[in-house]
Amino acid sequence: QVQLVESGGGLVQPGGSLRLSCAASGFTFSIYTMSWYRQTPGKERELVARISPGGSTNLPDSVKGRFTISRDNDKNTVYLQMNSLKPEDTAVYYCNAVRMVGYWGQGTQVTVSS
Length: 114
Description:
single chain, four-stranded antiparallel beta sheet, about 0% helix
C-alpha cells in the first residue's frame, strides 16, 4: 500500500521558515522522482520543487533561492526547506512521487501571515 504522508505545515510569520517532510512507503522510494506542489483555492496545482533519483533539483524562479528540496533515501523521506516565506506562499503543499505512475500525499497547510 503506497503512502505519502506530509508533515511540518503550520502558521508562520512573513520572513519565517518551515521545513516540510514527506514520509514514503509502499514503493521503491530511491528510484522515484519526488516533488512538492502547492495549490490555493481556485488555482491549479503548481510545481514548487523537484528532485530526481540522483539528486538533481529543479525549482521555479518564484521560490529559487528561498526553498530547498532534499531527499534521504535511507529514511524514504523528502524534505522541503522553506525560508524567507511570503504571504503568497500560503497554500496546501502536496508531496508527489512519479516514475511510471504517480502518487500524491494528502497535503499539509502552510499559512504565512502576521
